[in-house]
Structure formats: structure tokens, C-alpha cells
Design goal:
Protein name: Zn-dependent protease
Organism: Neobacillus bataviensis
Number of helices: 7
Largest sheet: 3 strands, mixed
Keywords: Membrane, Transmembrane, Transmembrane helix
Mean pLDDT: 91
Number of strands: 3
Order of helices and strands: HHEEEHHHHH
Strand order of the largest sheet: 1-3-2
Number of domains: 1
Strand content: under 5%
Structural class: mainly alpha
Shape: elongated
Helix content: over 70%
């Protein structure tokens, strides 16, 4: 039973990552009909939404694209910054979706930002407390570790609506501004959906692991009784 469980929590993220890489590789070879670079698409979306203070920079690393709310910067990986593919357009628009969320004070994004220090503490401290609690048979310590882990899991769950909303905003922007052709919308959506799978997989694995630890805790208390 445990072998099946651990196989599931390993295979789900691997499958999601492979899906992202394969989808990105496929559509990074397909140029948009407008032949706009990802950097230019990002700049136009930001300007159209009055976000002239948000910079667009070239980042480092494969699929390292992200929006930095501290510096108000959209950073695109080299292939998406310079590329004119459907994948580059979709990713650039998605990161601008986060910038728009930030500019409009999107509630879930603000909540996620507020959870960052708690989630970081939970991720770093939870497993230490959990392992000590299990091996030393200290249910109180195990429970504390579960509480810390729950904070990290909550962060991942809150990330889901943030990511899906950013993708919806991205599609609305590239379509309304004419940055991709009508026939390319389906392909752009496939890129965004594949990327979203990684967040769904991470959240699913985190919830499963949290439930497993809760069962261990309840079993430990039952044995003590």
C-alpha cells in the first residue's frame, strides 16, 4: 500500500513536468501570425493596462519566467523574451497577468503574498518536527509539525486560483489586443493549461501527504489510549 502511495506522489509531479516540457517544446517551434517577440507582447499588455512602471527583463534559465512584485518586473526566460512563438506569447502574457493582478490588488494574490513567510517557515520546520515526533513517538510534536505543514499546503492551494486567474487574464489580453491570431487561441490555451498542471499536481501531492500525516497522528493517539 505504501509503495503504491509513494509511486503516486512521485509520478504525478513527473507527469505534470513532462506535460509542460513537451507542450512548450511543441509550441515553441510554432510562430504566431503576428511574429511578435515575447518581450514586445509583455510590454504592450502592460502599457495597455497602464502598468508603465512595470519593467520587462530577460531572465536566466529554461522556463524561469516569473513576475517579481517587489521590483515590479516581468522576467522572461531567454527563449520567451526573444522568441516569437505561441509558447512565448502565452507565457509572456501569463506573467503580465500576475502584474495586472498586483496592480489591481487581486485578493488571492495579496493573500498569497501574506502567506509567504508562514509558508516558508512551515516548509523548513515541518519535516524536522514531524520526523522527531514520529520516531520519538511524541504526538504533540507531530501535531505541531502537521500545523506547520498545513500552512505550506494552504499556500499551494491559494496559488491555484492565482495561476488560473492569471491565465484567463492572459488569454483575454492577447485576444483583445490582437497579439495572436484567432486560430492560435486554442494552442496558447494548451500551453497555459499544461503549465497550470504543475501547480495542480503540487497541490494534490501536498494534500495527500498532509492527510497521510494526519492519519499517522490519529493512529498514534489511538495506540496511546
Amino acid at each position: 500500500m505504501y509503495l503504491i502511495y509513494f509511486a503516486i506522489i512521485v509520478l504525478i509531479p513527473l507527469w505534470a513536468q513532462m506535460r509542460v516540457k513537451n507542450t512548450f517544446a511543441k509550441y515553441s517551434r510554432v510562430p504566431t501570425s503576428t511574429y511578435r517577440r515575447g518581450a514586445d507582447i509583455a510590454r504592450e499588455i502592460l502599457n495597455a493596462n497602464g502598468l508603465f512602471n512595470v519593467a520587462v527583463e530577460e531572465g536566466r534559465g529554461f522556463l524561469s519566467d516569473h513576475y517579481d512584485p517587489r521590483n515590479k518586473t516581468v522576467r522572461l526566460s531567454p527563449e520567451n523574451y526573444h522568441g516569437n512563438s505561441i509558447a512565448a506569447a502565452a507565457v509572456a502574457a501569463h506573467e503580465c497577468g500576475h502584474a495586472i493582478q498586483d496592480g489591481q490588488g487581486y485578493a488571492f494574490l495579496r493573500f498569497r503574498h501574506a502567506l509567504v513567510p508562514v509558508a516558508n517557515l512551515g516548509s523548513n520546520a515541518s519535516w524536522i518536527l514531524i520526523m522527531i515526533g514520529i520516531f520519538a513517538h511524541l504526538s504533540g510534536l507531530l501535531l505541531l509539525g502537521i500545523v506547520f505543514m498545513a500552512a505550506a499546503v494552504l499556500f499551494q492551494l491559494v496559488t491555484l486560483p492565482v495561476e488560473f486567474n492569471a491565465s484567463n487574464r492572459a488569454m483575454n489580453q492577447v485576444v483583445s489586443l490582437g497579439l495572436i491570431g484567432n486560430r492560435e487561441q486554442r494552442e496558447a490555451r494548451k500551453v497555459l493549461n499544461a503549465a497550470a498542471l504543475t501547480y495542480v499536481a503540487a497541490a494534490a501531492v501536498a494534500v495527500l501527504e498532509l492527510l497521510r500525516l494526519v492519519l499517522i497522528f490519529t493512529g498514534m493517539n489511538r495506540n496511546d489510549d
